[in-house]
Amino acid sequence: MASHEVLVLNSNYEPLNVCSLRRAMSLMFLGKVEVLEHRLEPIHTAGGTFRAPSVVKMRYQVRRPMPQLRLSRHSILARDNYTCQYCAAKGRELTIDHVVPKWCGGPHTWDNLVACCRRCNLKKGDKTPQQAGMKLARKPKRPHFVPYLSLPLYLKAQGREDWRMFLPFFEEFSHSLEYLEKRA
Fold this sequence. Notes:
This protein is of the alpha+beta class. Helix content is 24%, strand content 24%. Among the domains are: 1-66, no CATH class; 73-132, DNA Binding (I), subunit A (Orthogonal Bundle), CATH 1.10.30.50. A hairpin with a 5-residue loop joins strand 1 and strand 2 (15-20).
């Protein structure tokens, strides 16, 4: 099987998590979930052949606090479409740059961090973009993403055709989804 992961939805269809196929099967047999989508490939076990779940929905509401969007390297790269914000180079070999350097009081926040290629990071050094004679492609800001799932997990889930209709769409990440589809 291509992926042994299953999208888990709350009873109100809000994405809860992504779990293993084994966990989803045990939730099914315990009667805690109903299957909304099946995979094309069946599962062959000693007890018989079963249709493998792809998306399951909890039969009861799981209460949880609204998770916060975590500031991480991967989240910054996803927000910036895996593109250097100074020279527009794309790729996996990107670093994170403090627009206003830490020594100048630049905070470690969404508004001060950008994706940056190594070459531009070396050129900019411990200077502001103005001091280094560089210009940002766009001003960094906190995404408006509502984190039902973590941003990396959400982007990964958006790459699955059979899960897309169950996930909220955020226009600000459509460019990241295109990038991930090209890599797949």
